[in-house]
Amino acid sequence: MRTLMMVVLIGLGAYGAFVGMLYFTQGQMVYIPLSAHAGSPSDAGLPYEEVWLDTEDGERLHAWFIPAREGAGDRNEAGADECRAPVLLFLHGNAGNISHRLESLQIFHRLGLSVLILDYRGYGKSSGSPAEEGTYLDALAGWQHLLEERDYAADEVVVFGRSLGAAVAAHTAARVQPGALILESAFTSAPELGADLYPWVPVRTLLRFEYDTRRALEQVESPVLLAHSRDDEIVPHGHLERLKQAAGSARALSVLEMRGGHNDGFMRTGEDYVRGLEDFLEASFDCP
């Protein structure tokens, strides 16, 4: 009996230590930034501009602006009566930095979009340390740059977010109501995703992050595209179903079923992914 009690106490102690480790290291699990760049758009054959963005709370963010290909309605060259291609605000996931998204930049360039991709605070060359409210301010700085410095109208902007970036994108879209919103590999909220990944841990009690994509999406009136893979090993497909139900205020809702895992779904889906984006953009804009 004494031996059994010792085993139980040791097990409880180990569980408590594991839970404590999760609580105190959760920031390192949510944010996995890299400072070194792995390349630049020029390595992918894309023209680009270095951009620096100032946030409301004093951080300085590094970004790239990739203009639309010639003939696709570049905003800076189009006349007042000409068709203007939309611009995409790219909000990436929780790991790496903007240099690890070159394949996506090529796809959006092929689709005729200009793109502003930024690094959150603490990522790449950006100042500061990542935090939830900070990522929302970072996205807003990118949005304001497009409207105030690039002279885009709100209805000419596509807000795109992947994984963690999808939560930031939904939050941003609920505030600014862009021309369209694309959420790829999105989760409903950080606590719900944590509960799926660690069902034996009281994640909802311990987690200091919300990233409530579902609540934000309920407030979005813009056309919405949800892209997800049934083979996503990190965010279960059930999150897509719950997000679909939350998008009741959107003027239009489209779903793009991808193939492959959480990080490579857009590449594994190939031309079907590109066509899905193209169809959504054509339906959402007069000049895709």
Automatic annotation (TrEMBL):
It holds the Pfam family Hydrolase_4. Residues 87-191 form the Serine aminopeptidase S33 domain. InterPro entries: AB_hydrolase_fold, Hydrolase_4. It comes from the Bacteria. This is Lysophospholipase.
